[in-house]
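Standup notes
- DV: blocked on the single-chain target, sequence here:
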Amino acid sequence: MKKSLLALGLLTFLSYGVYAQSILNGSFEDWTTTQYDDLSNWANSNRETLRSGIISVTKVSGVTGSAVKLETSLSSMGDTMGAFISNTPGDPLNGEGGVPFSQIPTAFTGKYKANMAGSDSAILLINFKKNGASIGTMFFTLGGKNQTTFSTFSFPISLTTAPDSVIIACASSNLLTQIGVAIGSNITYDDFAFTGPGVTQTIPNGNFETWTVMSSDKINGWDVGGPMECVSKVPDAYKGTAALKLVTISGENGSVNEAYLINGKFPQQRGSIMGLPFTNQNDTLIGYYKFSTPGVDSASISVQTTKGGNFVGGSYLALEPKATYTQFRIPVISTDVPDSIIIIIGASSIQGSDPTLGNILILDEVQLASAPLNTGLLTLSAKADNFNLYPNPASNTLFISNIETGATISIYDITGKLMLTQTKTDADNKTSINIDQLHSGIYQCIIVDKTGASSQQKFLKH
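- DV (later): unblocked, structure below
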């Protein structure tokens, strides 16, 4: 009987390993670094298109010095992305933001060259405001099948009252009506200016001469929903040379911006969140994290499994503040054999109140119990690795020797579920743990000593 149970347990364990599916780049070691020129004084689409590794707003040669080029491109999701610049943060179509300007121009002028695909056209928006309200909004279009040299444009401005601010926004395609928007359409601008009797105020960096060299780290194997500046690569790793950092930052009008990380794909314009292939009905997601918040917030990890697009399982874990790396374990249990798994990670709680400004989540070594990373689940040390576990197989009581007072003993089942835990409080060399309530099968015993050094051994309960 014992022999049959042992054979059954080993078969279960081996079968479990055969179907193990790893979390792609769960060690957060694999990043793509992109250096680019960022246009000073102008918000632009690069923060969005960088998700697909695309620089949609670039520095090019101008009439004299430099100019700015905007190009419509194809995202990694297969969506068409128009490039844009705006002299102010916020949504220009909704009149958000504005830059100080208090004179009455009669024209908006500049230089351009363009190469529009099909019936596409570039658009410009000028919105004059006073006391927060729009007093004059104008739209203009520019195009050209293959205009390789700079031409001058001059659009009329009609104002009866002096403004106190202005919004200027440009796009590489007709994003207003979405008619004819085509990949590859591009336009280059230079020397923006307002002209007219008595007009002396200039447009900040309207000649596009001032740029800042930027560097963006894009994490491979994961997608980001939200501002890219909320996600970064840091050297403060649990293992290896890099870890993931998620933060919450200031947004517009007093809001707080945050980003979420997913092991699949966030939809850019349409569709549902897509996970990655996964067929284990029972598993455990394991990782290590540090988290700080100036408030009472928590970070979050959501795990969902789907089959044919329908949810068949899910778990949510709130990550409480921890100053040093702490292990988390999330059971992944499905009511049916799934075909995909979706992991979503955020630096704030996804349940309840708005995010707290200043949250910092550092995450490393995210893995499934069925497919541990090559770097290993735990930090090992010779000291922690010397413990003895017997008898093996065991029936009612498991004995553990050569562990220090204060060490934590944890027992997990084959799916990674925590079954038992206790702390050694006496000075005896041998410690016992009652396993009578455990079902027959293979288990993992993990010892963590007071220094954080850990080791693990498997045993069979019969």
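- Follow-up: Residues 2-18 form the longest helix (17 residues).
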